[in-house]
Amino acid sequence: MNLQSINSNKWARRVAWTAAGVVLLWGICWLAVPPILKSQAQKIASEQLGRKVTIGAVDFKPWTLELTVTDLAVATADGAGQQLHVQRLYIDGELQSILRLAPVVDAVTVDAPSLKLTRLSEGHYDIDDILARLSQPSGKPPGKPLHFALYNLALDGGSVDFTDKSVGKTHQLRDLTLSVPFLSNLDSKRGVVVQPRLAFTLNGSRFDSAAEGTPFAQTHKLDATIKLAGFDLAPYLGYIPASLPVRLQTGVIDTDLRVAFEQTSTTSVKLRGTVQASHVKLTDAKTRDLLSFDALKLTLADVQPLAQRANISSIELTGPNVAVRRDAAGRFNVDLAATPAAASTAPVATERGAKGEDTTGAAATKEAQTNAWKIQVDKVAVRGGTVAWTDETTAPHAQLALRELVFDAAAIALPFAKPLQFSGSAVLASVTGSPTASAAAAPASPSPQAASLSFGGAATDRMVSVAANLKALPLSLAAPYLASFIEPGLNGQLTAQLNADWKAPAAGAQATGLLLGVKQLTLENLALTDGKAVSQPRAPNPRNAALPSIKQIEVADARIDLDKQTVSVGKLALTDPHASVERGADKRWMFERWLKKPAASGAPRGSASKRPVAPARTWQIAINDVAIEGGAVSYRDAAMPRPVAFEVSKLTIQLKDFALDSQKPSPLTASARIGAGRTEPGRLDYHGDLGLNPLSAQGQVQAVRLPLHALEPYFGDALNIRLLRADTSFKGQVHYLESKAGPVVKVTGDSALEDFRANSVLPPGVAAVAATSPATAGAVPKATTMAAAGSLQPVSEPLLQWKALSVRGLDLTMKPGTATRVNVRQTALSDFYARVIINPNGRINLQDLVKSSAQPVAAAAPASGAAPIKPAPAVSPAPAAGGALAPIVNIGPISLVNGKVLFSDHFIKPNYSADLTELTGKLSAFSSVAPASAPTMADLELRGKAEGTASLEITGKLNPLAKPLALDITGKVRDLELPPLSPYAIKYAGHGIERGKMSLDVNYVVLPNGQLTAKNNLVLNQLSFGDEVKGAPTSLPVKLAVALLADRNGVINLDLPISGSLNDPQFSLGPIIFKAIINIIVKAVTAPFSLLANAFGGGGDELSTVAFAPGSAVLTPDARQSLDKVAKALAERPALKMTVVGTASLDAEMEGYRRERLNAMVRAEKRRETTIGASAVPAPAAAASAAAGAAAPATTVGDAEYPALLKQVYKHADLPKPRNLIGMAKDLPQAEMESLLMANIPVTEDAMRQLALARGEAVKEYLALRQVPAQQLFLGAPKAAADQPATESKPGAKWSPHADLNLATR
After folding, report:
1. What is the mean pLDDT of residues 114-139?
2. Which of 166, 437, 454, 562 ranks highest by number of CB atoms within 10 Å?
């Protein structure tokens, strides 16, 4: 076809013109569109964005509808930089757009877009101005959705730089690739499958995804694949809110997920694939470690979030490290609710609840059950886990770690259709190092001692059953917690097989539903230590056990029900328990020193709740079998004045069927060795029953030589003795029952107290005086003297000893409301020793065995040789305290073998000592209950020796238990040498004993009314006293007493009868006997003739004087009778010398002397008249002659002849006489003549001395006539009454004429 043909053809012309027009249009568009589009695009975009928008070049190909824009840039707000830059934008349009009236694009390509975005502050960006312009409403009503069809959408080489000034971070997104092959909402294209892809690298982490779906179809079906490899979370940590209680430090996310979305009648979203978080590390608000793990991988089989279904193939956790910490205030780092962030959200929750949200328990539970997720996990595995525990409330801080944690669980289905099964294992050990360091981050420093733990079980939401095996758990792990309470450390190992069962209690029930079980638990080498590790048990010797230790504790078949509060144990066994029970001088027990004082609490005391607290239920504990083997206890109490120390070894206990609340007694078998000091330990065995409700014990007890003396310091303060040794033994039955009325005790068997040794204790002051006194220097041992003089410690010496005290057939019964009964079948005491001392205060040491606040001093009652003491009124015995009944005591025969008593008297100076040896005897049975009115008397026989030579014998009847006391005792001592008694003689008489023996017969009778009658017959043979001892307290004429008392054979026989009442508190037998003996010696001085009178028929002190008539020297018949007794006594005691002293008194005898002279003149007148051839003699001469011959044999004058003789005497007397009228002497009456004659008789002192001399001569001549040797008679110088000492006359007594008789030995 040529041009002409075209011109001729109309349609050809039309086509040509059309083609030319199109070409022209293309040309115009090709030339005009780019500059116009560039200009208008820059202008409109700048106006819309408020930023300068520039385009580098625009290329448009109208023939292919291809538009290319290069170097598109949006400037920053300040215009200094580019906010957005697109290197190339390519759009390939389709002519279908004209036909479909909707954009149909064959390709859209964006090359190398670059965006720079800056976050200025919270919620503010550098594009806020652009967003504000774009968000302004246009004011036009919305139109219909735009239909479009886009093909081959692609974005390549994109990058984004996001600068966050609020956190100081810049995020870089590189290699951004986005491809969408097709995207259309045209009706004809909605079913076309779309396969988009997105990939980029964000901060070095690669992200890639792919999808396939029909997003605009009716079902919106989509299947996508999301892969995220090594996505590091570190750059985004600053965007985590600071209010969160935890901080994410590191983390890497890896995903390979497939997402399936489809919307039919219901929307369905399904996830499957794997999600893994690696190298995750969480810290608390203080950036301290909280949680970290190497990897957490979830393999999703089928997860439907909208359907609330999840099927997880596996959950694998590798290398988890959990750090649990409790700070000094007691707050836990895992308690996120207690953090400030959590606390700040609490008001929000409270406010929501206040607005009426339906949060009631029933509704919430029902809704939760309806909307509950259904989760199924096929497998859970934890490998290489570590749980670190740090407790800052302890000092030092506790650091424990659960390492090598392995946990496996399978068949987990929620809600539970069947129990899940789980198992695991771990290693528990302590962690050394700083408590602030991460235990998980320092695995290289565990304790060398670690425990292994394995467990397994099943669980649901309503029950848990778990069994665990724990092996070699070191108890030292608890040291930080124990350090807050006790000083010593704790060592040992725990191995156990445990189980626990929990069942959810019913709604509203106050129960835990928890049951704990112990199949086997073993504690080995358990010991409190001083901080050093102990890997082996302590030595059996309890002396080395300063701190308690147990080789092994074994518990088997134990079960604990927390709800019922019951504990049942099949077996509890302790092997080789060692303990040292000590109390120091500060009276603090060892456990008080172990315990630490709790820190003072700052909380006020009143801050505690004052609500009443319900009383706690009592736990019921039952143990089927309790066993203790090889136990040892060392006991020491230094708080006493003398330490208490004893040791218990080889302790063995077997207890069966024991329960705290059981009323049935439990069989008990126990044995032990108990020792004190270096002696052989004793043995204690018990076989019987033990009950707690009520407290009771009944069984066979065998005790062999238990060291009772070890406990002496506890009761020794109440005694004045020190118990050095006492081994007690018992074999028999014991029954004890605690009742409401009081204890019931029944003891039957045989007992013994062996190797008894007790010393007396002298107070320091008394010991020092006794030791340093010259009088006692020879009686106190040298060692005792040095101890007393060198310190103020009490001084002791042996007091009581015996080899064995055996009590057989003991039967003791004590029951409330009845009298205590004590029966003893037989008692034997062998090889005994007693030290009897009269102390310087006069008391016997055995009286003061028990200390008392007031020591009564016994006052000696007055003694008399014959007269009984008037008994004091009887004192009724005080009733028993509280009205208790008097005990009933029946004692069988008592035998004494080979005894010794050492007697010392420190009351006298120098001291005296005597020994009683070979004491052997017996006492028959007696009782405190009298069968009739009179008590049962026991026969007593006791024989021995005194001072090794004298025989001793005591026989009689007595009852020591009788109330009141009753006895009839006879004692005999033969041939006791007296020189050892010299100290008594020196003290009381001032003379020592040089020679002599004594025999004694005594008899004491005490009646039930307390009346004592004592007969003491004392025979002294050849008693001889030495010279007077200078410095003695007193000096008595003992030689005179001996001369008075001893017969011709040198034997003195004294009877000392004594009587009195034992009810008189002032009555004391010993002082009375001594007082009676002293009275005899004193009487030798004051009344020697009384002794003679007692020996020879009585007469008393009147034998010491010879009475005369006033003015007369003639012996009266009574005087001659008394002188006959004196003569007989002098004849029996040739050693006595007598001096006769005549006495006279001028004042007292003046009238008597004149009367006697007048009588003498009358007798002389009679002799004159009767004398043949006698010459008359003047009257004065006759009177003188009569006075001179007064001692001549008396001439008697009768009453009838007396007047005539008197008249003759008056007639011859030369004296003034009354006369009559003629001067002749008058005849006077007899009385007047006597008065005139006596008035003219002179009386002078010389006459009185002559009278006294005449009296002495009369007595001496009479005794000589009675065959008294002249060498025993002496005439003393006469004494007038004025010459006699006042002491010779009794005070207030009238003087009478007499002659004194004085006795002496020389």
Report:
1. 82
2. 437
**Closest listed residue to residue 484, CA positions, set 328, 332, 598:** 598
Tell me how far apart the alpha carbons of residues 919 and 946 are, in angstroms, rounded to a whole number: 9
Helix residue ranges, H only, 371-508: 479-482
Q: Are residues 916 and 801 in the same domain?
A: no
Q: Could you tell me if 54 and 172 lie in one domain?
A: yes
**Could you tell me where the beta strands, DSSP code E, fall in 925-965?**
926-927, 938-946, 950-959
Within a domain: 665: no
Contacts of 1242 (CB under 8 A, 6+ apart): none
d(CA 1141, CA 1304): 14
**Closest to 797 measured CA to CA, from 845, 727, 855, 850:** 845
Q: Mean per-residue pLDDT for 372-393?
A: 88
The pLDDT value given to residue 792: 44
Q: What is the DSSP letter of 818?
A: S
- What is the chain's alpha carbon radius of gyration, rounded to the nearest angstrom? 68
Q: What pLDDT shows up at residue 197?
A: 78
Closest CA to 245 of 330, 346, 321, 352: 346
CATH number of the CATH domain containing 1263: 3.30.1330.60
Q: Tell me the per-residue pLDDT of 555-579, one tens digit each, with 9 for 90 and over.
A: 999 999 988 889 999 999 999 999 8
Q: What is the pLDDT of residue 188?
A: 56
Q: What is the pLDDT of residue 400?
A: 87
What per-residue confidence (pLDDT) applies to 734?
A: 95
Q: Where are the alpha helices (DSSP H) in 529-685?
A: 590-594
Query: What is the total count of domains within the chain?
Result: 7
Segments of 187-308 assigned E as strands:
197-202, 205-213, 222-232, 246-263, 267-284, 289-304
| Residue ending a domain, choose from 1023, 1048, 1077 | 1077
Mean pLDDT confidence for 966-983? 83
**Residue at 210 is within a domain:** no
- pLDDT score, position 1101: 55
Pairing of β 894-905 and β 938-946: unpaired
Q: Do both 193 and 223 map to the same domain? A: no
**Residue 462, phi then psi, degrees to nearest 5:** -115, -5
CA angle 1130, 1131, 1137 (to 5 degrees): 35
Residue with tokens 């006391």: 965
Answer yes or no: do 717 and 817 share one domain: yes
Is 346 a residue whose pLDDT tops 50? no
Question: What is residue 192's predicted lDDT score, i.e. its pLDDT?
Answer: 58
Higher pLDDT, 241 or 213: 241
Closest of 1000, 1074, 990, 1075 to residue 1040, by C-alpha: 990
Q: With bands split at pLDDT 50, 70 and 90, how would you rate the model's confidence at 542? A: very low
Asked if the structure places residue 1072 within a domain, the reply is: yes
Tell me: do 823 and 895 sit in the same domain. no
- Quote the pLDDT of residue 499: 93
Q: Looking at the domain assignment, is residue 1060 inside a domain? A: yes
Q: Are residues 1273 and 1167 in the same domain?
A: no
Hunting for tokens 């389709």 — which residue is that? 94
Adjacent-strand bridge partners of 401: 388, 429
> Which residues on adjacent β-strands are paired with residue 744?
737
Note whether 231 and 331 are same-domain residues: yes
Q: Helix axis angle, 1179-1188 relative to 1202-1212, nearest 10°?
A: 120
What CA dihedral angle connects 1201, 1203, 1206 and 1211, to 10 degrees?
A: -120
- Per the CB < 8 A criterion, the answer to whether 249 and 229 are in contact is no
Residue that finishes a domain, picked among 1045, 1077, 1109 = 1077
Asked if 1012 and 966 touch (Cβ cutoff 8 Å), the reply is: no
Q: Residue 152 above 50 pLDDT?
A: yes
Region 837-850: mean pLDDT is: 75
- Domain span at residue 1001 reads 841-848+863-868+887-929+936-1077
For 266, phi then psi, to 5°, come to: -130, 155
DSSP labels, 62-109: TTTTEEEEEEEEEE-TTSSSEEEEEEEEEEEE-THHHHHTS-EEEEEE
